[in-house]
Amino acid sequence: xxxxxxxxxxxxxxxxxxxxxxxxxxxxxxxxxxxxxxxxxxxxxxxxxxxxxxxxxxxxxxxxxxxxxxxxxxxxxxxx
Length: 80
Description:
- This protein is of the alpha+beta class and 80 residues long.
- The chain has one domain (1-79): K homology (KH) domain (GMP Synthetase, Chain A, domain 3).
- Helices cover 36% and strands 24% of the residues.
- The protein has three helices and three strands; from the N terminus they run αββααβ.
- A hairpin with a 2-residue loop joins strand 1 (21-27) and strand 2.
- Helix 1 (2-11) runs antiparallel to helix 3.
- The radius of gyration is 12 Å and the shape is globular.
- The termini are far apart.
- This is RNA-binding protein KhpA.
- Keywords: Cytoplasm, RNA-binding.
């Protein structure tokens, strides 16, 4: 449910909503949600000084309640 909610929020922010992918992974610390977007939309998802990403993390943490959830915005262009 958290992955679907995060995907819905991110699709509303970006210019290429068809390229948004959110995957959930479980580890010892809890659940990790990885957000992948089109390279041109990466700045929109992160926001100025990380404000948008921080807001997304706050909303997902509130939805998760007492569960530990981590939200990672993944940079898919690793050729730099």
